[in-house]
């Protein structure tokens, strides 16, 4: 059993009582109204999902278990010499609401290492995918290739009592989180490895560093090793902090995972569904668009651009009826704290990179330019404004792969949420749908 299990069980028992009393008392209490706008507008702004692990706040940005990103950066355990939160510590937080102590973290890291192994058959299956298949398709299929080992699905077949669903859901959730870097690494190797052998998991490295190794970001030159170690860590922590694991339950990847999970489908089936949603251009692909915007700018103005050039470029973009990618947000009403983390990271680790400097200059120029249009609700940058440029800096220029990085990190959020959904016994989701005709009649009270 997992080292996190006992801690989690105590919290779950407590929260189950709170939840059931709350449901009984407030089952009929109104918390909002549904408008025609919400029905026609993709349910935007409509509260309809119970999701325990995180909440998106218009001003503070994302909160994990009531902690904002800055608090997480400050309080989360880090690797020796590292500056960024360890994903293992963040996963523990998402599950339990607390950070692990040193001993717990150590045991949890070694547990995830053990769970991160794929069988020979699973590896072979993933390696047999066509090299030109989109990395997200491979990733989702790779997760599905591991699904036959679902412990939850087996327990369900064996007739486990529903009060115990969460226990094997936890087992699967941890397995999925532990295995996704390996699956994503195999996909990378398959698509871009040019036949190079896939490195094995290295027990001396943590979760993120192993993933970086699969992506080929390592160097055997010993004299370089220390410097590289830090860079490598910095790089990979950047991935996790910026494609931050969770962004409440209403975004497509989280909601798709949650919805499929509500049928009591196991965590592999649910997570793969979420990843298929993440593969959509309006969701996980936005950071590619943003990078293209910056690269096109460089193509036009070279590397000796000025802030005046940026202003012109934004004006031309708007005049041609396009949006400025990386700016604005459906919920946030301030600079995305995830962007601030990117900026802070870049200020510390990256000097003299023209593309990164362009990101910084855009931050000085674009909010004003967008505000002048008078219609943009939020002229500030979101996470996508900086992430692509940072990845490019580290030589990760395979654009099609960026969404897979996003997917690996999202596993931590959506899988912890699924443990809680089963623990609270949430029912199958089944909202009503209406035809336009019905909706029109409802408006007239017919
Ligand atoms: N550039 C130009 N115009 C913008 C804009 C931007 N970055 N952001 C918003 N606007 C425009 C809208 O297109 C809309 O114009 P319209 O009235 O002519 O249709 C008007 O401002 C009002 O929109 P809004 O209320 O500010 O935003 P929204 O909630 O409808 O949309 C979002 C939010 C993110 C889709 C939008 O800001 C946008 O398209 N941004 C650029 C793309 C982007 O960065 N996407 C990634 C978001 C982060 C993520 O989830 N990964």
TrEMBL record:
The keyword Transferase applies. GO terms for biological process: carbohydrate metabolic process; tricarboxylic acid cycle. Gene3D superfamilies: Citrate Synthase, domain 1 (1.10.580.10), Cytochrome P450-Terp, domain 2 (1.10.230.10). SUPFAM superfamilies: Citrate synthase (SSF48256). GO terms for molecular function: acyltransferase activity, acyl groups converted into alkyl on transfer. GO terms for cellular component: mitochondrial matrix. Belongs to the citrate synthase family. This is Citrate synthase. It comes from Stylonychia lemnae. The gene is Contig9452.g10114.
């Amino acid at each position: 059993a997992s080292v996190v299990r006992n801690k989690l069980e105590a919290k779950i028992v407590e929260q189950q009582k709170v939840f059931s009393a709350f449901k009984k008392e407030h089952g009929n209490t109104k918390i909002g109204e549904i408008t025609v706008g919400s029905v026609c507008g993709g349910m935007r702004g409509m509260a309809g999902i119970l999701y325990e692990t995180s909440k998106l706040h218009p001003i503070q940005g994302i909160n994990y278990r009531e902690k904002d990103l800055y608090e997480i950066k400050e309080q989360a355990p880090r690797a020796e010499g590292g500056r960024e939160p360890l994903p293992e510590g963040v996963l523990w937080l998402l599950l339990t609401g607390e950070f692990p102590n040193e001993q717990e973290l150590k045991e949890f890291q070694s547990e995830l290492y053990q769970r991160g192994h794929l069988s020979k058959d699973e590896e072979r299956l993933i390696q047999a995918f066509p090299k030109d298949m989109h990395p997200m398709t491979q990733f989702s299929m790779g997760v599905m290739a591991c699904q036959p080992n679902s412990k939850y699905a087996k327990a369900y077949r064996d007739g486990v009592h529903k009060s115990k669903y969460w226990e094997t859901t936890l087992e699967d959730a941890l397995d999925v989180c532990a295995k996704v870097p390996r699956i994503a690494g195999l996909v990378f190797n398959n698509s871009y490895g040019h036949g190079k052998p896939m490195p094995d998991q290295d027990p001396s490295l943590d979760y993120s560093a192993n993933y970086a190794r699969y992506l080929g970001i390592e160097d055997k030159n010993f004299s370089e090793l220390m410097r590289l170690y830090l860079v490598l860590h910095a790089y990979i922590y950047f991935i996790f902090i910026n494609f931050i694991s969770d962004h409440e339950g209403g975004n497509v990847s989280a909601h798709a995972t949650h919805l499929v999970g509500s049928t009591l489908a196991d965590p592999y089936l649910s997570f793969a569904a979420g990843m298929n949603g993440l593969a959509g251009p309006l969701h996980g692909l936005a950071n590619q668009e943003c990078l293209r915007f910056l690269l096109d700018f460089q193509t036009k103005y070279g590397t000796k651009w000025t802030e005046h050039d940026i202003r012109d470029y934004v004006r031309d973009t708007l005049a041609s009826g396009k949006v400025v990618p990386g700016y604005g947000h459906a919920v946030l009403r301030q600079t995305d704290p995830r962007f601030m983390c990117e900026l802070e990271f870049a200020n510390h680790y990256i000097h003299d990179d023209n593309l990164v400097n362009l990101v910084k200059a855009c931050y000085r120029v674009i909010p004003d330019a967008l505000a002048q249009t008078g219609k943009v609700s939020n002229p500030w940058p979101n996470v996508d404004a900086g992430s692509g440029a940072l990845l490019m800096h580290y030589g990760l220029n395979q654009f099609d792969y960026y969404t897979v990085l996003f997917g690996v990190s999202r596993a931590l959020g959506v899988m912890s949420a699924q443990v809680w959904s089963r623990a609270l016994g949430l029912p199958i989701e089944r909202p009503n749908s209406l035809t336009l005709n019905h909706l029109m009649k409802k408006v007239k009270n017919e």
